[in-house]
Amino acid sequence: MHSNGSIPSGESSVNGLSNDESRRKPESLSPAALNLLGQIDNGEATIGVIGLGYVGLPLAVEYASAGFKTVGIDLDESRVDRLNRGDNYIDDLDDDQVRGLVESDLLSASTNFDACGDIDVFFICVPTPVTASKDPDTGYIESATASIAEHLRPGQLVILKSTTYPDTTEGIVKPILEEQGDPRGLTLGSDYFLAFSPERIDPGNEEWTTANTPVVVGGTTPTCGHVSQIALEEIIEHVYSVSNPKVAEMEKLLENIFRSVNIALVNELARLCDRIGGISMWEVIQAAATKPFGFMPFYPGPGLGGHCIPIDPHYLSWLARKYDFETSFITLSARINESMPFYVAEAIIGAVADQPIRLRDANILILGVAFKGNVDDTRHSPAETIIKLLEEKNVGSIRFADPHVDEYHVRYRDGSSRAIEKVECTPETVAEHDVVVVVTDHDAFDVEMIATSARSIVDTRNMLADITDPDLRERIHLLGGGDSTMTALEPIADDA
């Protein structure tokens, strides 16, 4: 699927030039580059995807669907076994499609790197967490790169897709490859190729998928950028090339931090509305969104989740400190968002206090433990922090209901974990709990049933917006709804 290289509608040009004009094909290409491009063009290149999670497996499926032999590598044996049986485990993918690709031998998976010597194009899609001190942990990237480097040969392309900080590709991945390549007489940009192209996965989004979401790529050399763009255009219509990996790495952080700071803004205003009383932040946002220019709606909530947005501000702040620079605005935004589970936990305690029951006897039902609606992804879900805070307050019992998540474990700092009891969201179950907390607004939740069955509700997502009955509204404590009872939520812990 070769595109004409044009910029998607609404995108700006670079220095007044279209992407085609600013990123011309290098004047000459090495034999290794020409050979790889020929393999890609003929559909003969073997694709390797390291990390078969929410980013890696959809990417592997796209290449396999385009007719490329695709090998996935993941250290999770159960995940690999499932995939090799044709058993799909990602909600956004079609079960029959995955099964068909496996049965046709276009898609396979392994827990080792033995096949690396036969792979022509590598995509590194591994986790990039932070340490306990919130510094970047690039261990997964380093390990994956080292395994590739052991099998490095002419004509191979490595594209890092894991979200990370600027200079990871050139400062970490490149030296590992060169350490193995240089003694063999392999030259980066001539014999093998390296680039960064950040993932843009939005779990649960049926409109924008791996195939139709534009992507950015930055090569370590002009040839690396060109080869990478051609490889990506086999499955993605719009591929936008930038001058180097650092630009692409910073661009990804900008995407996510843009959301982080705007969500922090509305979270802070939501708390202010609760303090003032009589002002619904949800109505304020709805009114502001009538402006056809200069405004984009963001909504308050119980805290950020998923992999990228809670993590990326810390990546950038860590990098900034290396240059004696403080990202005050970005760091403050992260703190505001990280304080929201504390805000919600205090609201729950306040809702219990309004009833004739002791906290240690209270039954709390958490509705939704996924980090966003209509997905099964629980990574960094605010539900975990909320549950742990309630446990610290010796709340009687905490259960959860989530149509997308079968089991949920809360992890503690000492490395231990505890399974939270799952229940079905039925009228009887809702009625037997003292407070019901909407953490995730899944479409599958029966809003009318919840409103009529619950004794008290803390709604952090405005999921019950359509409930207008005054008697039922009395039971609902809406985060940012201007509910004067929410003022008990202050103050927020400084170390949130």
Automatic annotation (TrEMBL):
One of its GO terms (molecular function) is oxidoreductase activity, acting on the CH-OH group of donors, NAD or NADP as acceptor. It comes from the Bacteria. Pfam families: UDPG_MGDP_dh (PF00984), UDPG_MGDP_dh_C (PF03720), UDPG_MGDP_dh_N (PF03721). The keyword Oxidoreductase applies. GO terms for biological process: polysaccharide biosynthetic process. Residues 1-26 are annotated as: Disordered. SUPFAM superfamilies: 6-phosphogluconate dehydrogenase C-terminal domain-like (SSF48179), NAD(P)-binding Rossmann-fold domains (SSF51735), UDP-glucose/GDP-mannose dehydrogenase C-terminal domain (SSF52413). Residues 365-466 form the UDP-glucose/GDP-mannose dehydrogenase C-terminal domain. InterPro entries: 6-PGluconate_DH-like_C_sf (IPR008927), NAD(P)-bd_dom_sf (IPR036291), UDP-Glc/GDP-Man (IPR017476), UDP-Glc/GDP-Man_DH_C (IPR014027), UDP-Glc/GDP-Man_DH_C_sf (IPR036220), UDP-Glc/GDP-Man_DH_dimer (IPR014026), UDP-Glc/GDP-Man_DH_N (IPR001732), UDP_ManNAc/GlcNAc_DH (IPR028359). Keywords: NAD, Oxidoreductase. Residues 1-19 have a biased composition (Polar residues). Belongs to the UDP-glucose/GDP-mannose dehydrogenase family. This is UDP-N-acetyl-D-glucosamine dehydrogenase.
